[in-house]
Design brief:
TIM Barrel, 10 helices, globular, binds iron/sulfur cluster
Length: 328
């Protein structure tokens, strides 16, 4: 039996591939993007989160922790995350549900049972030659390739059931893992954040060398394999990091020149700050806590730059919420 660590399932998802999908969020990621929108998915360990609004200040949890990891401070409940064993005893003892575990360990078999309950929503199989676009299951995260055995077994089980699959990846993995997962995948959603290797390292903690090499590997795989799949590129638009004219031009040129003919969509995803409270619940600082959403004009400007970069314009799509600017 193969087990994996996941955060949760998102049902009726419409943003992680075509049609109506169920997205499985894996736990654990090899990148540490400064703007990460899913901070709870970075660590592969099960974590504990505290909801201040639900807390009664009864301090039952402090006595329940066998490791002395909890202290009530002026700023709320402090969790010593270095020594927390994720045993869940504090959450069990809490009378108001103010403490919750983030993530769970699940077997492929049990997860498949859950995913197949949504079968009625998936129009299968549509991505590979069908006439209409269909839904299915997307593996996202975190980073699915970070748990290759689990991801491969899950994709295999889904394909055996005729479910369309998508792999949402940051691209930092081995070609060996790609060889295992690509034959089981109908759509690859590949994050290409920053083209310049130095800036990529500065903002994500790693070089993009392997990521770009993997894109070329996927291109060649796509061109030579009997069973093709779709490749969508996604670039998050992060103010001061990825949304510069230079970066969008460079990414667009790369897609047009190096991946010519392989990419079927380049999605520009507007920065969002919905994760702000999640950082607080995890006791983490977020460099973008005060950064507002982009305006519609700013998003349109990014789309304009992308459309002038050389990639076919009809493949470029700007998505995400923007903020309204009050008239002066
Ligand atoms: S047990 Fe729950 S309600 Fe009581 S102090 Fe701890 S977190 Fe707050
Ligand atoms: S999960 Fe266990 S070790 Fe961690 S704070 Fe709660 S009781 Fe303590």
């Amino acid at each position: 039996m193969i087990n994996g660590q996941i955060l949760h399932l998102q049902r009726l998802s419409t943003e992680d591939g075509p049609g109506i999908r169920t997205t499985v969020f894996f736990k654990g990621c090899p990148l540490h993007c400064a703007w990460c929108h899913n901070p709870e998915s970075i660590s592969s360990r099960i974590q504990t989160q505290w909801f201040s609004v639900r807390c009664l200040d009864c301090r039952t949890c402090i006595g329940a922790c066998p490791n002395g990891c909890l202290t009530m401070t002026d700023d709320g409940l402090a969790i010593d995350r270095e020594h927390c064993q994720a045993c869940g005893k504090c959450a069990q003892a809490c009378p108001s549900g103010a403490l919750e575990a983030i993530g769970r360990t699940v077997s492929v078999e049990d997860l498949l049972v859950e995913l197949l309950k949504d079968r009625a929503y998936y129009e299968v199989p549509a991505l590979c030659g069908g006439e209409k676009s269909g839904g299915g299951v997307t593996l996202s995260g975190g980073e699915p390739t970070f748990q290759p055995d689990f991801a491969e077994a899950l994709l295999c089980g889904l394909k055996e059931q005729g479910i369309a699959t998508a792999l949402d990846t940051c691209g930092l993995t081995s070609t060996h893992t790609l060889d295992r997962l690509l034959p089981l995948t109908d759509l690859v959603l590949f994050d290409l954040k920053i083209n310049d290797p130095v800036l990529h390292h500065e903002f994500t903690g790693v070089s993009n060398k392997q990521i770009l090499e993997n894109l070329v590997y996927i291109r060649d795989y796509c061109r030579t394999q009997i069973r093709p799949f779709e490749l969508w590129i996604r670039t998050p638009l992060i103010p001061g990091a990825t949304n510069s004219e230079g970066n969008l031009q460079a990414v667009g040129r790369y897609l047009a020149d190096t991946l010519n003919g392989t990419v079927s969509r380049w999605e520009l995803c507007a920065f969002n700050n919905l994760c702000r409270d999640q950082y607080k619940r995890l006791g983490m600082e977020w460099a973008y806590a005060q950064t507002p959403l982009m305006t519609a004009d700013e998003l349109a400007h990014c789309e304009q730059i992308a459309k002038a970069s050389g990639l076919r314009q009809d493949l470029i799509l700007a998505t995400g919420a923007t903020r309204t600017v009050e008239p002066q």
